[in-house]
Specification:
Number of domains: 3
Largest sheet: 10 strands, mixed
CATH topology of the largest domain: Rossmann fold
Shape: globular
Structural class: alpha/beta
CATH architecture of the largest domain: 3-Layer(aba) Sandwich
Radius of gyration: 25 Å
CATH superfamily of the largest domain: Glycogen Phosphorylase B
Length: about 625
């Protein structure tokens, strides 16, 4: 007999037996048993159907992403793109959107970050066991890398929604004995290696992903959603297979009708491009060179251009980002769907309890958080005090710094790279000392990883560490190492103010401020990305700078932004925090009602369903 979860043949003597609706089901492992019990309605009918893959055929949307963040112990993500993908799939599960997720399984992760006393970043591989989180699926497929057949297997991680609906996340893996050592390493590191390594990974994701879905029985996919251009090669595989079954030369129209594309990168340098010589060497002759050049660029294979040419719907991830993307690619119709976060995931325990008392339906209907406008500010502040205490307890475990419960605590956490300008607030340390002496104590918490090859990003971490030493003991500043999902939840909920200072218009969206908003934490941010839409001055937070696209080329933009940052911190924000707690509570309440109620992935996924999937 077959296990209804993974399809493997099992014997009565060695199986795990469960009963459902008067019928007995035999599972090959405890992992499959737990998956079955979490969603028996999904698996119970699979074996009764003439099609053993019946449970899979109902999936209509395949969501491809280079990284997906589901659990802090699963190193399948590096930052914002992966966190967004994870939140998207969680909301799909809650809303019962018939999606299957596709990504890669990274045996060594992105990296574990440690910082020495001088702020130097050191990287080491992650150690983890995928079998503790996902189950290995039976089929394997092959892709061609440099003329060699590379075996690809898949693991499945189940994402269970609030009502028990399960979204399968398929994680592709080349670390199998049949492959040579270099091919086994293709699913070793996230964003590691050279161009050849990246291209090979994207072959596994895009081409291998389509083939694996077919092998697993997902034969009724109506939309292939490319979350960023890394997965764009899936369009080539769809073209190849369409030609095999079509009388036309290349069925561009049909394949284009199947694909949708979300772009996240507002600068040309951030879009993957590969030399055609490398493409032919690594990918071979999947499609003729002239077809590739027609779809992806004459001189180099541009993954974004390929995705644009082969998608029926394209969007940016904030209204301003949609405009910037349209300017970058004027020949294409580019819509915008502003990002969000998964409300139930990013709301801290104390605020969950608060919302449960006042807005019982908030988990299934985050738009109902607008009713937070009626919650007494004293209760909001009490919930915040608990969230802040949890964060400061973590800091005391990690460091010996004297962080105070009553001091204005400012948080900044994101990828450490130049355009994020993490050190902008430290441009003039004397200004911070003056604020601390004349208005009230301030303390800063930083976190974020620099890419191993990003030396300017690493230098920013060192600079923050150096200035932190200079400002002791009057101002406490800490840079917390190894930023991950767990630390992000503590930080975005526990600080008093969320700081974001990117160089416009380079912030496509940003979601950390949305996470903070779910916990009543107002933002103090440059007008870029989502904050252009979420900002109401003095109501949901405060702005920095003009936010115009032209400011990127102005030599004095950094000085101007720093000047305004210090002026508002000294003249508005710190005095309000210390002298008018009732007004501060009102701002926290408005942040929840206006921002958390809108900037969530339930709203975002519903927009994708209406605009891109139907």
């Amino acid at each position: 007999m077959k296990d209804p979860v993974c399809g493997m043949t099992v014997s009565v003597e060695t199986s795990f037996v469960v009963s459902y609706q008067g019928q007995s089901f035999y599972l090959c492992s405890d992992l499959c048993k737990r998956a079955f019990l979490a969603a028996p309605e999904k698996y119970a009918g699979a074996l009764a159907s003439p099609d053993a893959g019946a449970a899979e055929t109902v999936r209509r949307i395949a969501y491809f992403s280079m990284e997906v963040a589901m659990d802090p112990r699963m190193p399948t993500y590096s930052g914002g793109l992966g966190v967004l993908a994870g939140d998207t799939l969680r909301s799909c599960a809650d809303l019962k959107i018939p999606v299957v997720g596709v990504s890669l399984l990274y045996w060594k992760g992105y990296f574990e970050q440690t910082l020495d006393q001088w702020g130097n970043q050191h990287e080491r591989p992650v150690q983890w066991d995928p079998s503790q989180f996902a189950r290995l699926l039976p089929p394997t497929i092959h892709v061609s890398i440099e003329g060699r057949p590379v075996v690809v297997r898949a693991w499945q991680y189940d994402i269970t929604g609030l009502t028990g609906y399960v979204i399968p996340l398929v994680l592709l893996d080349t670390n199998v004995e049949e492959n040579v050592a270099s091919d086994r390493e293709l699913t070793g590191y996230l964003y590691g290696g050279d161009e050849r390594y990246r291209l090979a990974q994207e072959i596994v994701l895009g081409i291998g992903g389509v083939r694996m879905l077919q092998a697993l029985g997902y034969t009724h996919i109506e939309r292939f959603h490319m979350n960023e251009g890394h997965a764009a090669l899936l369009a080539l595989e769809l073209l190849r297979t369409s030609k095999a079954t079509s009388t036309t030369e290349w069925d561009f129209v049909r394949v284009r009708s199947l694909c949708v594309f979300t772009t996240h990168t507002p600068v040309s340098a951030g879009h993957d491009q590969f030399d055609y010589g490398l493409v032919q060497q690594v990918m071979g002759d999947l499609l003729p060179l002239e077809v590739l050049q027609m779809l992806a660029g004459r001189d180099r294979l541009n993954m974004t251009l390929l995705a644009l040419n082969m998608s029926t719907y394209v969007n940016g991830v904030a209204k301003r980002h949609g405009e910037v993307s349209q300017e970058m690619f004027p020949g294409y119709a580019i819509d915008s769907i502003t990002n969000g976060v998964h409300s139930a995931t990013w709301t801290s325990p104390s605020f969950q309890q608060l919302y449960d008392r006042h807005i019982p339906c908030w988990r299934t209907d985050p738009f109902a958080l607008r009713y937070a406008i009626g919650i007494p500010t004293q209760e909001i502040w009490a919930a915040h005090v608990q969230a802040k205490a949890r964060l400061l307890e973590e800091i005391r475990k990690r460091t010996s710094l004297p962080f105070r419960d009553d001091a204005l605590t400012i948080g900044f956490a994101r990828r450490a790279t130049q355009y994020k300008r993490a050190d902008l607030v430290l441009s003039e340390p004397s200004q911070l000392l003056d604020i601390a002496r004349t208005v009230g104590s301030i303390q800063f918490i930083f976190a974020g990883k620099a890419h191993p090859k990003d030396e300017p990003g690493k230098e920013i971490i060192r600079r923050i560490n150096h200035i932190a030493e200079q400002l002791k003991p009057e101002i406490s500043i800490v840079y917390l190492e190894n930023y991950d999902l767990r630390l992000a939840k503590l930080l975005t909920a526990g600080v008093d103010l969320w700081l974001n200072t990117p160089l416009p218009p380079l912030e496509a969206s940003g979601t950390s401020g949305m996470k903070a908003a779910h916990n009543g934490v107002p933002s103090f941010s440059v007008l870029d990305g989502w904050w252009i839409e979420g900002h109401i001055e003095g109501t949901t937070g405060w702005s920095i700078g003009p936010g115009s696209a032209e400011s990127i080329s102005q030599e004095g933009s950094r000085d101007q932004d720093a000047c305004e940052l210090y002026e508002k911190l000294r003249g508005v924000i710190a005095p309000l925090f210390y002298q008018n707690q009732e007004r501060w509570g009102e701002i926290m309440r408005s942040t929840i009602a206006f921002n958390a109620s809108f900037f969530n992935t339930h709203r975002m996924v519903q927009q994708y369903a209406a605009n891109a999937y139907v």
